Recover the amino acids of this structure.
């Protein structure tokens, strides 16, 4: 579980910045591969629609997880 009670505003270390940069580069590469694999079969409208659908599905999924843990907390504090 992520505890934000004692969160600080620490400046990321050089290692953290490097890891974030590497993760970003990998994300861009994979995302680019996904779009390139669809460009001959789908219009730009369908690609944009697909990206929006994926983001909405992720949002719904995470909202359900929040509700799940909220329900556990409610049950524990009854």
């Amino acid at each position: 579980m992520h505890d934000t009670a004692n969160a600080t505003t620490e400046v990321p270390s050089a290692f953290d910045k490097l890891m974030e940069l590497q993760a970003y580069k990998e994300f861009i590469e994979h995302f680019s591969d996904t779009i390139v694999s669809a460009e001959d079969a789908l219009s730009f409208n369908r690609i944009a629609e697909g990206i929006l659908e994926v983001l909405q599905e992720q949002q719904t999924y995470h909202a359900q997880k929040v509700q799940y843990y909220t329900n556990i907390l409610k049950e524990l504090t009854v």
About this structure: The first helix runs from residue 14 to 38. Residues 15 and 21 are 10 Å apart (CA to CA).
